[in-house]
Amino acid sequence: MVFLVLAVLVVLTTATTMWLLHVRAPRENDPDSIFWYAFAGLCVLAPLILIPVQHNKPSSLALLGISAVTATASHTLLRRYRAAGIASMVRQRARAAHATVAAQHDYLIERWCRYELDPALAIDFPAMSDVRIPETARLIRSVTAAARLRTALPDTFDAVDSYQQAVAGLRLALETAEENARAGTRAA
Q1: DSSP string covering 132-180, please?
Q2: For the chain, what is the domain count?
């Protein structure tokens, strides 16, 4: 029974020490905090492991093994947890960046749709609907490319960057098509 209590205390102390080393110490921005957390953990662990040596050496070795296994498992789990947290943060930032680009995309599509849906603009600027004009054809290709990249999952900044480039291409194509349509209206 005593061994079981000591084993539980060793596991708790080791896991807590590893947690302090992996989570608390980096947050404090104090180079000495790692040392002090490790020192405090060892000060608690040493008596838990060394005192049973007087009565039963194998139990003390077993407690030392339990401590080593707990330290290794805690270290592995905390590293995986941190990596998952970082990956989640990257995904959230990528999705926020994607939402910003999507808002720009929506604005450009709305701006282009005015030429398609507003009869007055369709009459004043017929070049914006004529795909035989190279600038308008380029605009339609840009609309398609941006729409295709919008539906991609924005889990990485590479996907967001590709989408952002497509939206920038759409903006340029729309501005070029508008300038061409206005120049054609002035010439007529």
Answers
A1: TSHHHHHHHHHHHHHHHHHTS---SHHHHHHHHHHHHHHHHHHHHHHHH
A2: 2
Q: Are 100 and 169 found together in one domain?
A: yes
CB 174 within 8 A of CB 108: yes
The widest CA-to-CA distance across the chain, in whole angstroms, is 106
Q: Could you read off the pLDDT of 57-67 as tens digits, one per residue?
A: 888 889 999 99
Please give the structure tokens belonging to residue 19.
């947690």
Q: pLDDT for 65-81, tens place per residue?
A: 999 999 999 999 999 99
Residue range of the domain that includes 33: 2-88
